[in-house]
UniProtKB/TrEMBL annotation, chain A:
PANTHER family given in the database record: ABC TRANSPORTER RELATED, IMPORT ATP-BINDING PROTEIN
Gene Ontology MF annotations: ATP binding
UniProt entry tagged with the keyword Nucleotide-binding: yes
Protein name: ABC transporter ATP-binding protein
Keywords per UniProt: ATP-binding, Nucleotide-binding, Transport
Cross-referenced PROSITE patterns: ABC_TRANSPORTER_2
Listed InterPro entries: AAA+_ATPase (IPR003593), ABC_transporter-like_ATP-bd (IPR003439), ABC_transpr_LolD-like (IPR015854), MacB-like_ATP-bd (IPR017911), P-loop_NTPase (IPR027417)
Domain ABC transporter: 8-228
Biological source species: Streptomyces pathocidini
SUPFAM superfamilies the UniProt entry points to: P-loop containing nucleoside triphosphate hydrolases
TrEMBL record, chain B:
Taxonomic classification: Bacteria, Bacillati, Actinomycetota, Actinomycetes, Kitasatosporales
Transcription regulator PadR N-terminal domain location: 7-77
Identification of the protein by name: PadR family transcriptional regulator
Highest taxon above the source species: Bacteria
InterPro entries: Tscrpt_reg_PadR_N (IPR005149), WH-like_DNA-bd_sf (IPR036388), WH_DNA-bd_sf (IPR036390)
Amino acid sequence: MTPAGSLLTAENLRKAYGPTNALDGAHFSIHPGEVVAVMGPSGSGKSTLLHCLAGIVTPDSGTITYDGRELSAMGDAERSALRRGDFGFVFQFGQLVPELTCLENVALPLRLNGVARKAAEGTALGWLERLEIDSLARKRPGEVSGGQGQRVAVARSLVTGPRVVFADEPTGALDSLNGERVMELLTEAARSTRAAVVLVTHEARVAAYSDREIVVRDGRSRDLERSS
Amino acid sequence: MSISHTLLGLLESGPRHGYDLKRAFDQRFGHDRPLHYGQVYSTMSRLLKNGLVEVEGVEPGGGPERKRYAITDAGITDVAQWLAEPEKPEPYLQSTLFTKVVLALLTGRSAADLLDAQRSEHLRLMRELTERKRTGDLADQLICDHALFHLEADLRWLELTAARLDALAAEVRA
């Protein structure tokens, strides 16, 4: 049963890669504006859970419901549209397009959604200002530091006004101070726009920016606060 | 570490004399600080008074050391409550947490649940400190950072212990 008021819910997810059960009955739910940390040791299945929730990977069984609609019932085109509009993504290594400027990188999701260049770059610049990196607008990713690049990635994840941001080890490649700043900016921006954040991390200090955590072990999830 | 709870937990596997209790305690938990006989007997008399243990028999020859103590139902409940209650997160908790984990394994309780409850309690405090950092000045940030790094180290220990529970259970029950 879907928990009342939740935006994104997963029930009893199973996913195997060959003989390995990456997910073995995982559950998840998140409310609008909530930041939930997904923790667990390496290989526990936390990234697979994130990929399933985001519609990137299809689970072998189980249901994922987003805003009242079941993900598995959607066609590829509908799921892609969801990923471009309703979902935002931040990965460990930014994954910015090296040929584009930082401004163009942030504007890219809007351009893919058909927004005209000028309007898209105007919105993108607003996000660069908000994340205190508007001075980098004309630079390319190769010309900025790791911490700055990750802020660009955060701006890109928020530019379409997503309802869910998926962040997979967003500070994994950064030092403590830069990681902290990225987390402050990501969570502040998400809370002010009521975006939910699914935060995969193995670092407790990063998870401390969340409202709640679930632990994934051997492909099974455990919601500590709700089970206690 | 609560010596009275630890001695109670050791009694759960069966009645023992005071001397046996001291020996079991020292062997498992007293590497740095073995118990004095006096501590054992004063603890046992307090537990007796509170109804958490009873004297099952007295060996001929008399003397306090010949009393055979058994845990009562109230004692078992007391151990269960102590094990289920997470410790207040603070530096250098390891000896208490280690004792709780070993006793949970010895008494057939879930050590994984105990570690998860403790992990949750640690993260709760880390959230409070992170929020205090966000709204505080630089001095607040530095003080909170110190606490956060220590708590993070504890959490890593909790995770590593969780990953080693099967091996520890085999060793403890051997």
